[in-house]
Write a structure and sequence with these properties.
Layout: H1 3-18, H2 21-25, E1 28-36, E2 39-43, H3 46-61, E3 65-76, E4 82-93, E5 98-109, E6 116-124, H4 128-133, H5 135-140
Parallel strand pairs: 1-6
Antiparallel strand pairs: 1-2, 3-4, 4-5, 5-6
């Protein structure tokens, strides 16, 4: 396992937790495709990505999100310009209760030095009922 991949996953979680969405958006190429279970969101612009991330963070913040821990489950970055990183994030509230787990596959394209995320696949996510009730997120899903 590459230490820099774990570091990058931790930084991504920290940026999300701190609301630094613009820095997360900069990691993506556009259009970006996000699979949430069987639904798909195609984000054509950085502004759409910023809106989606902010809405998702809002749902989790309503549950008093205070900590995200990230673990790299698997990587396949040896095949050249395409890279897949499987991450498991655990989300915790200020009172210590676990809000849930996200199982996410990130797909990147390009050389390692300038690789951008082109697709994200959420296999599992925390607070699924709350996400399902979030109208702005639902309206983005095809």
């Amino acid at each position: 396992m590459h230490d820099y991949i774990q570091r990058d996953a931790n930084q991504l979680a920290d940026r999300f937790l701190q609301g630094r969405m613009g820095e997360i958006v900069d990691l993506f190429s556009f259009p970006a495709v996000v699979y949430v279970g069987e639904k798909v969101i195609v984000l054509d612009t950085p502004d759409q990505m910023l809106t989606a991330l902010s809405q998702y963070r809002s749902v989790l913040s309503d549950e008093w999100l205070s900590l995200i821990t990230s673990s790299i489950v698997d990587t396949d970055c040896e095949s050249g310009e395409v890279c897949k990183v499987a991450v498991e994030n655990r989300y915790f509230a200020t009172d210590g209760r676990e809000l849930g787990t996200a199982k996410i596959n990130y797909f990147g394209e390009g050389r390692a030095a300038d690789r951008k995320i082109s697709m994200v696949e959420y296999l599992e996510w925390p607070c699924p009922d709350r996400v399902a009730e979030c109208q702005p997120l639902q309206s983005m899903m095809a």
